[in-house]
Amino acid sequence: MSENHFGRTLYPLALSLWTAAFAWRACGVARDASALGRDADRLEDESRALDLGAMRLRALVRDSGERVRDARFLQDIPNILPEDKGYLRTQKAIEGEVALLRAKVAKRLKNALHLVIDARANKLYVKKGAKLLWQADVSVGRGGVLKDAKSGRSWEFATPRGEFRVIGKSPDPQWRKPDWAYVEAGEPVPPPGDPSRMVSGELGAYVLNLGDGYLIHGTKREELLGRPASHGCVRVGAADLERLYAAVPNGTRVFIFQ
User: Fold this and answer.
1) What are 27-84's pLDDT values in tens digits?
2) Number of domains observed in the structure of the chain
3) Are residues 171 and 244 in the same domain?
4) What global pTM score does this model have?
5) Which of 30, 42, 110, 116 shows a CA-CA span of 20 to 30 A to 214?
6) Partners of 141 in beta bridges
């Protein structure tokens, strides 16, 4: 067989093989494209489903918020429109009772000067009868109990409640340091009459004595006024203490409540 005849025979065969391979590869590409198209369609469906779910979630959140607002509104309705027809009459009667009680208190005090100490708000009010003259921030007892492991004694740092009187007052007072002050500091307790117990400047410029060891006095920590911070006495700022000392005579009633 001549070389030309061999070439003429091999060329068509090679062309047929190349055509078959190309067709097979084209089919594979078509299959891949079809699979990619199906995946794209599936992803698009899933994206639409996620968007729909997000829309439903937003709607649920919105509905939930509206239900919360509705519940609050329904809860407040009795305060706006009381179901009990006697509600308003009851409120009016209470207001009348409070006014009557105020009148009785004013009559009992006979327009006298007195002090009112709100231990919860840490406020001192100077009043004449039912009229408020002025007020001041104070610090009452901080609470808590101190126990002495050696002696077994304990002290509660609370301001008592009730009615008291100013039984004495003095300028430039000295503080007789009590046993609990030494126990609290971890120091040995000296004998009762020991001169080291007398401390100057601790109580401020003035003191008003309420009896039983409880005083109205000054403080070195005015930044704590308005909060419970004392060991039981009523602490007052320097300016208000001076005003109290000048205005409040011995025998003045002092009402401490919470």
Assistant:
1) 665 666 666 667 667 767 777 777 777 777 777 767 666 666 655 554 554 454 444 5
2) 3
3) yes
4) 0.61
5) 110
6) 230
